Amino acid sequence: MEAEVSIHGGTPESRDLYGRIQRAIGLTERLNRIPFEERDAIHQAWSELTGTAVDATFALIPPVYSEHGLSIRVGRNVFINQGCTLNDIGGIEIGDDVMIGPRVSLITSGHPVDPNQRRKQIVAAPIVIQRNVWLGAGAMVLQGVTIGEDSVVAAGAVVTRDVPPRTLVAGVPARVLRSIDAGGDASDPSS
Question: Which pairing describes strands 140-142 and 121-124: parallel, antiparallel, or unpaired?
């Protein structure tokens, strides 16, 4: 994944990005009209959105929202529940065996805090979701964050910093609650 990027308005790069955003909005609108039972059609639409063939084990319940699409990579046996937002200008990498709950938001881009620059610039950094992570319902992961292998992000958490492997995090901003032992139970991500 690329490091942090900055895109200034009014540049050829920003005009190119705007075209890709329009493309992604149209493709996600079409994808979201596909009935859940039409798994092959969902796979085909996802592959068109991301520009990469999706593994047969991929499962998605529409609707899903993306403002770019071409910077999303998913591994094997990934499940994305309904109502998720994948803002991927900065890049999103989702490892094998990841479960993403309903209404999860992965937000790789934003704007500078400086009010004079806010409407003139987009800043973005990648999100990496490592193998076997579970993101609980309504969780939000912000730009530049890596969620370590086997971790759980509790429902409604807002993750602003990296999460170590085998860790349960919760809250706003998310904080480590405990480690997850091998064979241990983290069955309630809202605790």
Answer: unpaired
- Whole-number average pLDDT of the chain: 92
pLDDT of residue 169: 98
The residues assigned a catalytic role are 111
Token pair listed for 16: 């190119």
Q: What is the pTM of this model?
A: 0.90
The yes-or-no verdict on residue 53 having pLDDT over 70 is yes
The string over 16-25, giving b where at least 16 C-beta atoms fall within 10 Å of a residue's C-beta and e elsewhere, is ebeeeeeebe
Residue 181: pLDDT band by 50, 70, 90 thresholds? confident
Q: Round to the nearest angstrom and report the end-to-end CA distance of the chain.
A: 32
> Residue 190: pLDDT above 90?
no
Q: Side chain identity at 46, as an amino acid letter?
A: W
Q: Please say whether the beta carbons of 153 and 169 come within 8 A.
A: yes
pLDDT value of position 187: 53
Bridge partners (DSSP) of residue 132 are: none
Does domain 5-179 bear CATH number 2.160.10.10?
yes
The amino acid sitting at 88 is D
Give how far the C-alpha of residue 109 lies from the chain's centroid of Cα atoms, to the nearest Å: 11
